[in-house]
Structure formats: structure tokens, C-alpha cells
Amino acid sequence: MSGAQDSVNCGLCKEEAAERICETCNVNLCKNCIGRHVTNNDGSTSHSIVKHKDRKSSEDLQCVDHKQICVIFCNTCNRALCQSCLALNIHKHQLVEISSAIRSRLATLDKETEELEQSLEPGYEKIILELETLLSLQKKCHAEIQEKMKEQGNRLKQALNTMIDQYSKQAKENEKRDIEDCTNLISKIKNNLEAIRQSAEVNKDISKSKNAQVLTHISKNETFREIPALFELTASTFSPGKIIPEQLQDMFGELSKSMKKNKKPQFIISNINLLENEDCLKTPEIIRVCETGLKVSPKVCCLHKSKKCFVRSGVNIKCFDDKGKVLGIHALKPENHFLIDITVTSDNHLVYSDNRERSINKVKNIEDNRTERVITLNGWKPLAVCCSSKDELLVTMQTDDGKENKVVRFKDSNVLQEIQYNDQDKALYSNPLFVCENTNFDICVSDWDDVIVVDSSGEFMFAYNGNRELRRFKNKFNPRGIVCDALQHILVCDFLNNIIHIINHNGHFLRFIDNCDLYCPQDLSISCNNELYVVGNSTDILKVISYLSYDS
């Protein structure tokens, strides 16, 4: 039975793994219980404590009680038995021949060894290789960060030195000009003073001579009474500006913290490939603009594998092609309906949430206004809605008093999942007006002040607060429309600041779209060719923006 008991616990303490076996008593022992086993007898028995691999074969395995060769193994008691043991009339125990038990245990042991060598060992080696690759990437990343900060510091120093040189040059020019003005005026006054003195001496000589020369004398006093123009000169000053750390931080840049998210081992490889998707972002540019005629709180969604989109405002929904041509209009009576959000299914059927009727509805044909009610809610009013990759509906909803909010996953009209609280039983959402699903199945919600992301099981992953530490915007982060692209980027409208934020699937900020003259961006969607469709509040303009260099 060599190796048959390798995975069992100690027969005395029942807790520690057995490292030895007493061949005399056939008892598995951990290293802490060996001494207790040997000493707990009257000294008449000589115990043979050996490693499992060194134990004797089954032919020499003796019964503890009867000193006979064991021929039967009891799976219930997990011990070998002799013929005398069997005579004790053991009932309802699972008994097998000892040779069969050995073969069974050896087969199990071989399977364990096979798993260790062919699955677990290479699996761990692969994980180590991936983690070492990740470590290398992180070291390289942090080295690049240090180099970038050093370069930025040198640029700031150079800019500061250049500014100091300019101020110093200007101060020297001011000094030169002021000194020249003062010197020239002093010289002119001194010349006049010398002329006054000379004129006084001439007058004295004429007066002493008392002759006719006084008749030809011409007075210069009138000239001297015209004193050269004087001036008051206020000295040039330098007033040191107040050094504001926040402004220095804005000029120097932002250093974000690392974010770690636990993942199951099988996802390690795929996640490494998504570490640096910022390289796929290019400078955003507007490629098309069209007028929709829909201005109030508009919503937009692009159709799958089609260059078409739906735009909703109030109870009116229009379908546009990529040239801005209206292909169809779906209109409801405003006194009966209050539409909140729109989405499309995989077969491009329009779905909308009706807050007034507390329902989710499907429009199979926008041209003839045929509508099918899919879901009716009780005690809750629907807000945002999106269609998942499995053609399930994710619906955000709220109670009438606004105190409770949640995300519910539906298949047809059946509830599959409800997401409302985190692992500390605290509410996740306060006003979930927009929702989307990422390609990694995370659920992204644009809430009152934050973007809240949970995984497919509803476990909280992170909250994005709008990168407030940048301090570059006068208005607080005001998230509205949210969408995810093929590279798991999360894009969210910042309504009050007229920009769009782009973050990755882990919540790391990547960049802003702030160069496309956006006005109160309300909602956005991604087309089949990775173009971004954006609509703004109080304007009927639909802008199509290219921001990815990635080619799907």
C-alpha cells in the first residue's frame, strides 16, 4: 500500500497532514503526534514509524490488534483488516480486497500525479511567466513615468529660466532708460547753471566799467527763466507673484495611482493584452455633422452592422442613415407616454423605456409604429435601458420617492439578476440615468456624480469621479451618456464641462475629447465602424467623431 495514504490527515489530531505511518499499528501520523503515539502505551509494543514510501508491502502488513496479515481494506474506517477483524461482524462498512484497494489508490495517485505534472505545474509556470511579463511591463512603465516627469521638470525649469531672463532684460532696459533720462536732465541743468554764472560775471564787468557798453547789453534772464522740463520718476518695481501649488500641479501634470483588480487566473493572459490601449487613441476629429430636429434631452443609439442610428427627443424617435437622411419616424402621444431611453436588439429592433407607463417596449417596424410591450414594472419606474451581448435587457429603475435604485437584467420578461447594493450592503446608485455593457461584460452606469462599474456578477469594481484632481474645470463632473467600444474603453459625456472622458476598463483616465466644440453633450453611441455619435441638449446637431486608430 505504498503511497495509498499520502493525502490523508493524521489519525490522532485529525488536522495536520500525515507525514509518517506506524507500520505496527497502521496509524497515519503527523510529525507532532509521533511522540504521543509511541509513549501512549504500556511499553509492550515496539512501534515501527516510517515514511509512507518506506512502508512494507501488503503481504507484510499486520493487523494492529491481532498481529495477522491484513487481507481486507475497509473504506469506511480507512484501515486494513485481518480475518479476525472481519469476525467482529462489521455491518454496513464498505469492504474491498486489500490488493484492489491498493490498485484503486495507486490509480488515484497516478491521476493526481498526472494533474500535477501536466496541468497544475505548467499552469503555474504559465502564470509566473505572465506575471513576470507584467512585472517587466510595470518596471518599464514606471521608468518611463520617471523619465517623463524629469523631462517635464526640465521643460518647466527652462520655461522659468527663459521668463527670468526676459524679466531681467526688461529690468535692465528700464534701468538704462531711467538713468539716461536723469543724466541728460542733470547735464542740461548744469549747463544752464554755468551759463547763468557766466552771464552774471559779464553783467558785473559792464556795471564796473560804467561806459557806453551797457547800451548794447542784451539780457539773457528771460532765457534762463525758462527752466528745462522736469519730471517725476517712480522707480521700477518687481512684485513677486503668489506661488499656488495647484497651478504648478496643473502645469507639471497628473500622476495617477495604480489600480489593482482581482481577476480569475484564466483571465490573466487576455488582460495583459489590454494594458495599453491608449496607443489606439488618436486626436479626435469631426467627420460628419447633421441636423436632427430633436433638441430636448436627446438620446442616440447606433444599429448593429449598419450605418444607421436612432435619435430620440421627448416622444419622437427618428431613424437616420449615415448621410443624415431621415428613414423613419416613430411618434407617440405625449399625454400618454414619457420616453427616457432607447436601445437596439441584435436584430436591430428599437427598444425604449416608458417612464409614464412603467414599461419597456419594442418597436419591430418604425415605419408603421407597431409596438410590443416587453416588460411591465410594478412599484418601480424605468430609466435607462441597454441590450447586452446575450440579447438580454439591462434596465435601471427607481422608486417614486427616488430613494431606491437598481439595475435589473431581463431575459424577455423574466428577471435574471438584480444589482442594488455593494458587499457592505450600501446602495450602489443614486440616479442611474444611463447604462451600458462593456465587452468584458462589466456593467457601466452613469450615476449622479460618478460612473459606477460592476462586473457581470454585480460585484463592485470601481467608481470614476471625473478626474477631479486635474482642477482644470470650473464645473463639477456631471456624467450623462455612457458607451463602451471594442477595446473596452469607457466613454462618458461630461454635460456641464462640454467634454467627453475616455477611461479604460480598469477606471484609468486616458484622455478627453475636448476639441470638437461640444455643447452640453447628452448622449453618445458607437457605430459598427468605430465612429462616435454625439448629441447635445438644446441643440439638434448630431456630430460624428473619429477618435480611434484601431481598425476592427
From TrEMBL:
Give me the Gene Ontology terms describing cellular component.
nucleoplasm
The superkingdom of the source organism is Eukaryota
| Xref: Gene3D superfamilies | Classic Zinc Finger, TolB, C-terminal domain
Q: Which named protein is this?
A: B box-type domain-containing protein
Q: Which PROSITE patterns match?
A: ZF_BBOX
The protein's organism comes out as Magallana gigas
Query: What InterPro entries does the annotation carry?
Result: 6-blade_b-propeller_TolB-like, TRIM45/56/19-like, Znf_B-box
Q: Which residues form the B box-type domain?
A: 5-52, 58-98
> What is this organism's lineage?
Eukaryota, Metazoa, Spiralia, Lophotrochozoa, Mollusca
Report which residue ranges the record marks as coiled coil: 142-199
Report the GO molecular function annotations: ubiquitin protein ligase activity; zinc ion binding
Q: Which UniProt key words apply to this protein?
A: Coiled coil, Metal-binding, Zinc, Zinc-finger
